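Quick question: what would this complex look like in 3D?
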Amino acid sequence: MATNSKQSVHMNPGQGETSYAQNSALQKTAQDRMKTLIEEAVTGLCTSSCPHPKNMVIADLGCSSGPNALTLVSAAVDAIHRYCAQHEQLPPEMCVLLNDLPDNDFNAVAKSLDTLKHSVDEALARPTAVITGMVPGSFYERLFARGSLHLVCSANSLHWLSEAPEDLKKSRIPMHDSDEQLRSSRHQIVADSYARQFRKDFMRFLSLRAQEIVPGGRMVVSLLVKRSDKPDTEIIQPWTPAVTALSDMALRVS
Ligand SMILES: C[S@@+](CC[C@H](N)C(=O)[O-])C[C@H]1O[C@@H](n2cnc3c(N)ncnc32)[C@H](O)[C@@H]1O
C-alpha cells in the first residue's frame, strides 16, 4: 500500500457499517498480540531508569479511529500502573499522543481520548494524570520534539509506504497489471521496487524516531509481511477484480 501525506487517504471515518471502527477486528487481533511486548517494554523502561521517571510520553503512530486507536496506549498506561502498584511507587505523569495522517477521523479520536483520561482517573483511588494529544502528520516526517518519547507503538500501519516507487511510476508499471502474462513477467521488477521503497521508508522512519526517543526508550511495532516474494495466489485470487480496478484508477490519477 502506498500513500502520500498530501493526498486524501484515510480509513473510513465514523461509526457506520462501513467504518474502520466497525471493520477492524482482524487488526485488533494483531494489536492484542503486542500487549505482552508492551508490558515487557514498560518493565524495561521502569527498571532501567534511575531515578524512577517523573513523566512518561507514549505515542501510537498510525492510530486510525475506533476502538483500535486506544488499544496500544491503554495497554501501556495499564502496564505502567501495574508496575508502579507492584513496586509501591507513585505512577509517573503520563502523556499519550496519537498520530495519523491529517485526514484521519480525529474528531472520533478526540472523544475516545477523553474517555481514556476519565476511566484512568476513576479506576485509581489516588490522583494521577494522563495528558492526551493528537499529532496529525506523516510518520515519515518529524512529529515530536527531540528526545521526548519514552515508548513508541505502531500496529498495522508501517506497510503503508510514503509513495509508490519512483521507477515504476516513471515507466507507468502498475502494482497489479490486469494482463496476467504482463503481470507475471514483471512480477520480480515490481516486487523488487516495492521492497526497495519499503527499505528506504523504514530506514527513514527509524532514523526520525531515533531523534525523538529518549535514550533507553522503547519501540513496539507490528506490520503485515510476507515470508516469500512469490505471489500469494490463494489470498490474491478472490480480490483480483477489485485489485485490478483499483490499480487502474491509481494509474489514471498518477
Ligand atoms: C490499517 S490502519 C491501522 C490502524 C490501527 N493502528 C490498528 O491497528 O487498527 C493504518 C493506519 O495508518 C495510517 N497511516 C498510513 N500511513 C501513514 C503515515 N505516513 N503517517 C501516519 N499514519 C499513517 C493510516 O491513515 C491508517 O489509519
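Answer marked as accepted. Residues 3, 5, 10-11, 24, 27, 31, 61-64, 68, 99-101, 104, 138-140, 155-157, 160 surround S-adenosylmethionine (CB under 6 Å).
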